[in-house]
Amino acid sequence: MMQNVHLAPETDEDDLYSGYNDYNPTYDTEELENDTAFQQAVRTSHGRRPPITAKIPSTAVTRPVATGYGSKTSLASSMGRPMTGTLQDGVARPMTAVRAAGFTKAALRGSAFDPLGQSRGPAPPLEAKNEDSPEEKIRQLEKKVNELVEESCVANGCGDLKLALEKAKDAGRKERVLVRQREQVTTPENINLDLTYSVLFNLASQYSANEMYAEALNTYQVIVKNKMFSNAGRLKVNMGNIYLKQRNYSKAIKFYRMALDQIPSVHKEMRIKILQNIGVTFIKTGQYSDAINSFEHIMSMAPNLKAGFNLILSYFAVGDQEKMKKAFQKLIAVPLEIDEDDKYISPNDDPHTNLVIEAIKNDHLRQMERERKAMAEKYIMTAAKLIAPVIETSFAVGYDWCVEVVKASQYVELANDLEINKAITYLRQKDFNQAVETLKMFEKKDSRVKSAAATNLSFLYYLENEFAQASSYADLAVNSDRYNPSALTNKGNTVFANGDYEKAAEFYKEALRNDSSCTEALYNIGLTYKKLNRLDEALDCFLKLHAILRNSAQVLYQIAHVYELMEDPNQAIEWLMQLISVVPTDSRALSKLGELYDSEGDKSQAFQYYYESYRYFPSNIEVIEWLGAYYIDTQFCEKAIQYFERASLIQPTQVKWQLMVASCFRRSGNYQKALDTYKDIHRKFPENVECLRFLVRLCTDIGLKEVQEYATKLKRLEKMKEIREQRIKSGRDGSGGSRSKREGSAGSDSGQNCSASSKGERLGARLRALPGTNEPYESSSNKEIGKCWHSPPSSYRQNRSEEDW
């Protein structure tokens, strides 16, 4: 026994795991591929062993073991029994048990083991399609028709109606070719009716979308009259819609009723929609009793918001007060079928629940629920504003009834909005005291309603120029709801009115941060920057506003004015041209264009726009003055007379216009008319020195006897004028010392008098430009004629339901 015991050497004392990697090389299977004897034994029968005979006689035979190459080795069992399948007495026992795995009798004859049939070689190539066959051509053509129909629908969805119609027509042409080819190859029963139906229906829809109603109706008639199309009668609804667009209401009702007769009662929703169309058509024709029958049937079967609102309109048209009340109650009772807002509030701190709520808080379903609720509120508010003035003796009592009904329904929050609308109605009736009293009732309400009411009160007081009250209520609105952009805008307006432009700009900026779509705040901040002479920032604000309100005349004018202040007249003219394309009859914009062209030296263009301005508003003194001066400059004094006569009618106390009329007569050579005009002026203004000078001159030239009389009056007036001037001069010399003492206190008022003094200087310059005795009247091309218009800040009246029905 000890010969098999191996003692570890002393040097290996520390290696406890030595010897574990040692193994018998007989078991090294990795080197079998390089073992020549083994590979030879596998490939040939060299390694076949003779069968082992059993020591004990047995009836069992040995079992041959087949290798992967077909060789078999008969092995005996452990008891010496021959295995199944061996040759015994020259007869092979059948191997039925392994035949399904690919072992057959051929293996006994030395054939290779090939259960997958790989020895047969690759599969023959697929038979090539015969693209010239009629069936293949029909199949390809049908595929092309389907593609064209799909492309037509996609183009319609993208808004390209013309392309959609072209695709639909192409699909129709190819479908007719397809039908002819099918008739030649197969029997008519094999024609694809679904494809024909879809092609015709799409073509009719595209005709209707392109407002080609006659072609659409013809195509629908082809579908409806074909008995092979099942349920084609429903398309009569579409035909009725086309007749409704054409305002052929009798035919529309006829086709709606035909469609209603062909739709079974199980399709309840479809029948309700057709009935609603019938009711709307009856309203358009003025047959309100028939419309009431349709909507009453709908409200009894499947009530909805649109049918309820239309029923109220119908009762309002016939003036049935009691029925209006009942219809309003039915409208209020229509179920919204949406989830409550509490569903979107997490009941606990479960992170999984919070994630789910966050995911569904603003998904498409939630957006649809919001839209449906907003639509319901709009219908209810509009119906209440419509019926409140007529269902009771006064609109206030009617509003109170509507408020009570709304408070008892699921729309409780709309009651406060109805009260605010009541105040707005008082405003429209010019009853400001009642409006203020109604709005003051909301001071003890919740923050949202209080903020809305205070915003409206601030708006009212701002319009009445009571800026202290407006500021007080604006503060109340802001404190109630700091995120209310309209309240912040009104607060900015009150600060703007007090001249604190920097602070006003801060309020407008905060309003924009809370609501980037608040156009009033954006407009007002542009005006504020213009006041602060920050023209680049003002221009940026107005350009942003122009991107939102493309055709706003006020915004276009402000952009043009900013460019004018930046001394860029070309840009100013370009924006004013856009302005008059929006409001072509705005006389102020036309006169501003004339002024800009005049400053650029383009007299002809200036005359064109000044004349257009005069046509639309013939009472603008600046325009009249410029046109009269233009005709005098161009030596057409006769044409200038009519403008100065109009100016004298507008300002009868201003003698200069009548002097200009007389001067035009004198320049044109009509001295008698000029003399009569000067005499008339002298009767009205006997102390006018200029008139007397012209009278003396004309009478001298003509040789009239009255010259001495007018000369005497002229000398007396001139002497009185000299005495008056001497008194004024002596008074100034005497008050020189006291004036110097008051200079310090007067300096504080200089800012307030700046605009008045500049205006006086301009007026004096114009008066000095009037003709004297020896000089003709000459117009000055560079003098200021018009004044720029500055719009005040936009006030904001908060009223969610301000839309008129």
TrEMBL record:
Give the location in the cell.
Cell projection, Cilium, Flagellum; Cytoplasm, Cytoskeleton, Cilium basal body; Cytoplasm, Cytoskeleton, Microtubule organizing center, Centrosome, Centriole
Q: Where is the composition biased (Polar residues)?
A: 749-758
The record's listing under Pfam families reads:
ANAPC3, TPR_12, TPR_6, TPR_8
What do the Gene Ontology cellular component annotations say?
centriole; centrosome; ciliary basal body; ciliary tip; cytosol; intraciliary transport particle B; motile cilium
Looking up InterPro entries in the UniProt record yields:
TPR-like_helical_dom_sf, TPR_rpt
Q: What is its main location?
A: other
- Entry keyword annotation includes ATP-binding: no
TPR repeat extents: 233-266, 272-305, 485-518, 519-552, 553-586, 587-620, 621-654
The coiled-coil regions, if any, are none
What keywords would UniProt list here?
Cell projection, Cilium, Cilium biogenesis/degradation, Cytoplasm, Cytoskeleton, Flagellum, Repeat, TPR repeat
| Name of the protein | Intraflagellar transport protein 88 homolog
What would be the name of the gene that encodes this protein?
IFT88
